Amino acid sequence: MADLITVDDPDDPRLSDYTGLTDVELRRKREPAEGLFIAEGEKVIRRAKEAGYEMRSMLLSAKWIDVMRDVIDELPAPVYAVTPELAERVTGYHVHRGALASMQRKPLPTAGELLRSARRVVVMEAVNDHTNIGAIFRSAAALGMDAVLLSPDSADPLYRRSVKVSMGAVFSVPYARLESWPRDLDSVRDAGFTLLALTPDEKASSLDQAAPHRMERVALMLGAEGDGLSTQALVAADEWVRIPMSHGVDSLNVGAAAAVAFYAVATGRPES
């Protein structure tokens, strides 16, 4: 059973995992370096636990202690009970869901390990918006994508905002980082994948024309909001694909575009 500890000092060193959660640059550097990430809200905390992540501690306001009692009773990690006001002073924002957990990261698999068993893969290039990362992971999980590969400069899927937006789907879809971009796209192709670059360019084939759901193995490449895929990534692709637009709309938000494209890629996928 976890120890339930009441804390009334925002500078208590035991709360250090939770300090400055709104300082994006600090947390982006600190969390991977220290091997932790923050799960926010009851559902996300439970999903992280179910996915096998080890809990370092929990930070709860009083009303969430009974709600999380079963988790508290099962875990050896300390639970810090604080007032909402103290939680805000520590984290830097009002913790609406009243429950935070510091979780231990797992070692990431290599891209090669994921590609051996996958058939439908997402490849993200320089996607740095944490909301978009979370939305893409949620759609990937819901629509049957097998894995995600990230360029070296893409954002951290385990950053608090990404985890929250994905509703914990970042725990469901395995992911890895490519070490050399775009050179490592060759290894994806060598593993038997057709590289499809999603772009609004008029020269691209529509998803209906490309019929990715009939391809044996597909790696769908997505670029950052606004900039899209780089010239190097487009050149490395086997084929360009697009979502047909109407009413003068030129493109969709990358999160929305990903969901549409995932459905087109995964529908009718070969039986495993």
From TrEMBL:
Instruction: Identify the keywords attached in UniProt to this record, alphabetized.
Output: Methyltransferase, Transferase
Q: Which GO terms describe its molecular function?
A: methyltransferase activity
Q: Which CDD domains match?
A: SpoU-like_rRNA-MTase
**GO BP, sorted A to Z:** methylation
Query: Is Ribonucleoprotein included in the keywords of this UniProt record?
Result: no
- Domain named tRNA/rRNA methyltransferase SpoU type: which ranges? 121-263
Protein name (Swiss-Prot/TrEMBL): RNA methyltransferase
Q: What is the lineage of its organism?
A: Bacteria, Bacillati, Actinomycetota, Actinomycetes, Kitasatosporales
